[in-house]
Amino acid sequence: MNIVIYTRVSTDEQAQLGFSLRHQEESLRKYCAIKGYQVINHFQDDFSAKTFNRPEWLKLFEYVKRNRRAIDLVIFTKWDRFSRNSENALTVIRKLNDFGVQVNSIEQPLDLSIPDNKLVLAMYLAIPEVENDKNSARTRDCMRKAQKEGCFVNRAPYGYKGVRVNGKASLAFNDDTYTVKKAFEEVAKGIEPVEIIRKKMKLIYACKLQKQQFYNMLRNVVYKGCILIKEYKKEEEQIVQGLHDPIVSDKLFNKVQDVLMGRKRNAKLPSLINDDFPLKKNLICPKCNNQITGSKSLGNGGYYFYYHCTSKCKVRYKRDDVHRKISELIKGISFNKGMESLYKTILKDCLKEDVQKGKAVKEKFEKELQSIDDLIESAEDKLMSNEINKEQFDKVMTRYSSKRKECENNILSLSIAKNNSGKYVNKVVELMCNLENVFNHLSGGGKASFLSIIYPENLIIENDGFRTNSRNEVIDVMTSIYGGLENMEIKKAIPKNGFSNMAPPLGLEPRTL
Q: Counting beta carbons within 10 angstroms of the beta carbon of residue 305, is it exposed (0 to 12), middle (13 to 18) or buried (19 or more)?
């Protein structure tokens, strides 16, 4: 008789009850040797018997199906090795019988050709099934109880890692936490579709979430510090406060839900930029202080373009002249290209110093964390030796746990805020040495935004140049450094006050150009 032997053990059974695949195989092969049966194949699973969707069993079934004429019997040690679901087991037995192949247990043998033995088989299969159901119910009840206490008992979601807080399952931030927060902030704006934002997160922050995973993340209440407990029996679905810290606030989370549900319409920013007159919102009339506008007029040579005031003061300037003078203005605040290497060296030194300071602060917090851990360990030792009681120990743990958590958060913040500025130094300095070229290659909207950053209160346009009501402190610092370095390098006194000579600031004294 040709035999296929089947052995199975689940991971839990192997760890807790000591079932051995090797022992099962030895018993089956010894049985076959005594009976004079020929073992033609062996399949073994490390999988639960709740269903027949097991990798090795599926291979066994296909093998028997292909070689049905050469196989007489499939054997195993006990019926619970075969299945723990009576309904599925009877179905599989009938299918194998249709192939002309019998199944049986060597420790609980049954002649299934006798109808009464099917009652015994039902008992053999029902007992482990009931045991499984009881274990599942106990596990489910324990998990729900833990969830109601704020524990997170599932796999840690993106942006978190699994930890234990005072022996309870919870979550802590990881390196992807910032990406999650940034994704929520971008979606809450309601400007771009979610899929576009996901692709941006993938490109900029290496976010690995697929389309549905990204959407599920935005809907997951765990990110606002809560635990979702699903409906079960007569208990309705509920949301409780978790032990873990939230990544986003309630307000931000609710804004994102509004966007996803369509309650907040995706806003399209209105275009205020006229490509013919891209800088009209950056310019002010010198006579009436009204906003400058732009228009074109038809003449003998075609259209002529002007920036002009809408009031009765009749101020008007040729568009191309204004654009040329603004380009000269931008050129005036650019870095000296001959000093490019010196700027790069200085910036890299400054960044290096910041990184070293960050490392020193992080090391300080790490030492403090180790000191707290030592104190907690000492308290545990005193509890074990009865030097302190449980109430005193709980007070100590409450005090030090909060300090430990604060320390961990500080370390995490320093870890997330890694200084990656160094790799951008070369590019930034190159751009600062070539601001005029950068400005000229921008779109109309880009030029307007660029100019607003440098001169936030706009420019007052005049025949010979521009004035401004405010200074940009960043530009002041940049150009003062530039002036100091240039004087040091070429020994030539050139006054630098942060602005081109074409744009002196307003003051109490009469203006001169």
A: middle
Q: 166: closest CA among 371, 379, 413?
A: 379
DSSP calls for 460-511:
EEETTEEEES---HHHHHHHHHHHHHHHHHH-------SS-TT-PBP-SSPP
- Angle at CA of residue 284, ends 317 and 447, nearest 5°: 80
Q: Which residues contact 68 (CB under 8 A, 6 or more apart)?
A: 99, 100, 101
Global pTM reads 0.38
Q: pLDDT tens-digit profile of 467-479?
A: 776 656 666 655 5
Contact (CB, 8 A) for 269 and 176: no
- When pLDDT is averaged across residues 395-419 and rounded to a whole number, the result is 74
Mean pLDDT, to the nearest integer, of 320-331? 85
Indicate the SS3 state at residue 137: helix
256, β-bridge pairs: none
Average of pLDDT values for 152-175?
91
Dihedral in degrees, nearest 10, Cα atoms 480, 484, 486, 491: 140
Radius of gyration of the chain (CA): 38
Structure tokens at 267: 């806003």
DSSP codes, 405-428: HHHHHHHHHHHHS---GGGGHHHH
Whether residue 91 is predicted with pLDDT greater than 70 in this model: the reply is: yes
